[in-house]
Write a structure and sequence with these properties.
Low-confidence stretches: 1-34, 298-303
Distance between the termini: 74 Å
Order of helices and strands: HHEEEHEHEEEEEHEHE
Radius of gyration: 24 Å
Largest sheet: 6 strands, antiparallel
Strand content: 15-25%
Number of helices: 6
Structural class: alpha+beta
């Protein structure tokens, strides 16, 4: 049984890597008068957090990093040496490469020299619009986002600097199943691939002196995630509902970057045993309604 769980965990881990390797949505462009908030946000210094809801970025604005935001500025990179004044604006696939090549060092330095390539933070950038490009703007505004498996941005709170970069979700989060790949967070009442039932800190099982390979991690996570699942579900027998406990493991690069936490999650394998099937509803233990004892009335007797 332990061997079967380890193999299933490895299978699901591969699915997660595949699902999160898609190209992230690229990026917003802003064209505004210098007095506009959008322009001020677009040209913010490192450490500024930005938010927007409109996919075009037309409502981009600065927010306190304690508030929900979708972008954190790490620095500005000038690419004019590679793209002089008469150069056309690169096509979108080339922008992706420029972003990776030019902004990864900026983000890594901003995060103190360590960026988990499999962690919750990813490199992003704001590029000049075509009009700005024609006017000679060759600055790439580099920054940090948290991307969902689809590439859509997830709102975060707090500055990315100093944060644990482990790619974990809050317990109670359900992730969609889209064409047999892991999708974005959804309500658990909807069909989903996984429900996060807990997070495990592997530093409690291994010291930080050397990287424990994924097989060693899995051997510990069988028990650690089992305890997390029992606590979350109230001791639910997953097998009776044809559900299985899974977990993530950390790559060596993640360990080197300081990530130590992984998700424990519940999902289900299809009848052929080769893919996941959709699960509807949560396995979370229903909260108990506190009972109150009516106060005892004491009648004072006179004497």
């Amino acid at each position: 049984m332990r061997t079967r769980l380890v193999m299933i965990g490895a299978f699901v881990g591969a699915l997660v890597v595949l699902a999160t390797s898609v190209a992230f949505s690229w990026p917003v462009g802003v064209q505004a008068e210098p007095v506009d908030e959008a322009a001020l946000a677009f040209n913010s210094p490192p450490g500024t957090c930005l938010a927007w809801a409109n996919p075009t970025g037309a409502d981009i604005h600065r927010v306190d990093c304690k508030q929900p935001h979708v972008f954190e500025m790490s620095g500005v990179v000038d690419i004019s040496a590679d793209y002089p004044g008469d150069a056309p604006s690169p096509p979108i696939d080339q922008w992706q490469k420029i972003k990776a090549d030019k902004c990864t060092p900026s983000v890594t330095a901003y995060l103190g020299g360590k960026l988990d390539p499999y962690g919750k933070f990813t490199v992003d950038a704001l590029k000049p619009t075509d009009a700005q490009w024609r006017d000679g703007d060759r600055k790439l505004r580099c920054g940090i986002q948290r991307a969902a498996p689809s590439g859509s941005r997830l709102a975060t709170r707090g500055s990315a600097t100093g944060q644990d970069q482990s790619n974990v979700y809050d317990p109670g989060t359900c992730l969609a199943l889209v064409d047999n790949t892991i999708g974005d967070p959804v309500q658990c009442v909807n069909g989903h691939a996984y429900e996060i039932v807990g997070n495990v800190d592997l530093s409690e099982a291994f010291d930080g002196s050397s990287y424990p390979d994924e097989k060693k991690q899995a051997s510990k996570l069988i028990d650690l995630c089992g305890k997390a699942s029992k606590s979350y579900t109230g001791g639910l027998d997953l097998s009776k509902r044809k559900l299985t406990l899974y977990w993530d493991t950390l790559k060596k690069e993640s360990w080197a970057a300081g990530s130590r936490r992984v998700d424990c999650k519940v999902g289900a394998v299809s009848s052929d045993g080769k893919s996941l099937r959709s699960v509807v509803g949560s396995v979370r233990k229903a909260p108990t309604t506190p009972t109150t004892t009516p106060p005892t009335t004491t009648t004072k007797r006179g004497g």
